[in-house]
């Protein structure tokens, strides 16, 4: 049998790659386009809960992106109280394989990948579904994915006003300060949900609630806004879907009835969001098969659960750049 080697990219390796905002967005959009064109395989995520969902759980995401020549499995831990131990709330590994032979190709530290691809999906959704003249962003949540939401949205829209809020005053203040420094513009940390969200052109709800609670009020959403709720536990009212002209998801298979968790879980279970009133999956819009925003008056919602395809697409882009720059470790498998 021939010797088999794989590439390992650890956290410092991925930091050295320094993917630009444009590189991140292009990689994730390529994965979405492949999905829309039917060139992918995606399995609904599964969960491993060691003790209780209040304390944390593991997400296991699986998929194949045929044009890239990779199958992938990502395991990500999501433990909300990790900050008390000085640890990130999310840590992950992405495993990439040859889909023709099953041969292992690479292992990547996927904590950063998870954050980047989540932010990229939010931003690509806004590219196709938000008003072109959107000037105000209201963002709830300050966890890892939140940074890339704001950074990549601002890359596309160069907002006049960015508001952020999170449960802990110290975290929202530090988050606003980091964004202000990195984006070169003021970012306001608000004291409450309403002052963050009311009247914003783009609203992102990425909160970290221990249990479902309707913190974001439908009345605060202005006509024509683009709204992205994606917390594990729902923070929105049941009436949110009633005001939407279009509802879009990343993958209906991960949103349908019978699955746990998610910002719109109660809306699906009560038939407020169904396969029949769903406008499209985002990949169909990126591929040009379904329209995105068609008028400034449309109020549009995107619910993304997290795509293994985006992890794989971003991981593939990182591997390609690492090979060009000579970054990473070569590990013998067999």
From TrEMBL:
Gene3D superfamilies membership: NAD(P)-binding Rossmann-like Domain, ornithine cyclodeaminase, domain 1
InterPro entries to which the protein is assigned, alphabetical: NAD(P)-bd_dom_sf, ODC_Mu_crystall, ODC_N
Pfam families, per the entry: OCD_Mu_crystall
Protein name, UniProt field: Ornithine cyclodeaminase family protein
Natural source organism: Dongia soli
